[in-house]
Amino acid sequence: MPNSLKTTTSSSRAGDALSIRFKALQKHCLNHEHVWDIGCDHGLLGLSFIDHHHVQSIHLVDPSGPVIETLKKKVKDSYITIGRIFITHSKGQDLKINSLSNCIFIAGMGGKEIGEIITKLLPQLDSSSRIVISPHRKILELRELLGQLPISLLSEEVIFENEQYYQILCLSPEVGHKVPPFGQEMWGSEVGKRYREHQLKHFGPHTDEASKAYVNFLVTSKSLESSL
Ligand SMILES: C[S@@+](CC[C@H](N)C(=O)[O-])C[C@H]1O[C@@H](n2cnc3c(N)ncnc32)[C@H](O)[C@@H]1O
Question: Span 187-203, mean pLDDT?
Fold first, then answer.
């Protein structure tokens, strides 16, 4: 990334280094030609593709006026050529995507907004496109919605950064392996095991049916694992 675009954020305390979360998101963009960073804020994730030559356009999208103004200034003041960067003042729900081969990132938003954005964008995407998400809240509700949409889960993982856990899901607009409500492969890693304990502690006292079902799943998967 050009020097003047390297910025320290709450999720990138090392300054130059892309955060663990951003790296975990970024790796899902393979040969995609168009990158969309929806809810981009500082734009670090989208702009990290500046040196990826297969990427023909980088779209930085955010509904906040001040965010858009800051981004425009940041890009103008840097020495990168603006040609491949498009800064759009919009909610993700209102976007129109006409291109093929898109990698769409939606990170750092609540599950409700992410669910709405995916529902709106899904009919606009071709089968080679990917949607990569990292919801910060209401993940159970989002997973339930995703399980009902014509979308498939390609991979999932949980990462730990700055004392917080983040689920990262890579989705394809092709019908295939449905998104499981409570996750599957992410529990096997060392971080996944710690995340399960964290989730048990957090959801254990909840009395609603969805939380009880989740806790039941976590307890069962833990005892299955220890019996192996
Ligand atoms: C916490 S920041 C996340 C920034 C970055 N994506 C990350 O993961 O670090 C959330 C951003 O989402 C934007 N946002 C909120 N609602 C949105 C929506 N419906 N569509 C697109 N962006 C939205 C906010 O303006 C804000 O800049």
Answer: 96
